[in-house]
Design goal:
The protein has helices at residues 6-18, 22-41; strands spanning 53-57, 74-76, 81-82, 86-98, 101-111, 114-125, 129-133, 138-143. By secondary structure, it is α+β, with helices and mostly antiparallel strands. An 8-stranded antiparallel barrel has the order 1-2-3-4-5-6-7-8. Strand 5 (101-111) and strand 6 (114-125) form a beta hairpin.
């Protein structure tokens, strides 16, 4: 069983709000329309420097340049997030918190010729730990060095 730290609790609350919890839907309708307009204008949003780099799931050995065959590795550049068999093109990036540094990134996910809209929360703990939350569960990554 995975142990959740205070940052995970914070992030789970943030993602439930950011990804459309029922209590936030009515209050967020104007924000969603504004975000939609912003996303249309900002077709390729830049990913913050703090998130950029090569990451792999916590507990996996990861030395640069990382193992390109790892199905848990992600490579975050200024304009894309690349996984093993999929990649994301960010449409909007919004900083949610300074402590811990947290962003909501809305992207187009590309996989097997299909596209879908995705919203994820990214949070940095310290310098080398990244927590990514989508609609399912948190995933914890370590920065490859």
């Amino acid at each position: 069983m995975r142990k959740f730290t205070p940052i995970h609790v914070f992030l789970l609350l943030a993602v439930s709000t950011a990804c459309g919890s029922s209590t936030a839907k009515n209050d967020a309708s104007k924000s969603e329309k504004q975000a939609s307009n912003t996303a249309e204008k900002q077709v390729n949003a830049n990913i913050p420097k703090e998130l950029r780099g090569i990451w792999d799931v916590q507990g996996q050995p990861c030395k640069l340049p990382g193992n390109p065959d790892s199905d848990t590795r992600i490579d975050i550049s200024p304009t894309s997030i690349n996984g093993y068999e999929h990649w994301y093109s960010p449409r909007s990036v919004e900083q949610l918190s300074n402590s811990p540094k947290t962003w909501r990134i809305q992207s187009k996910m590309h996989s097997d010729g299909e596209e879908s809209d995705q919203t994820q929360i990214f949070a940095i703990s310290g310098v080398d730990t990244l927590t990514v939350i989508d609609n399912s569960s948190p995933e914890i990554y370590e920065r490859c060095k």
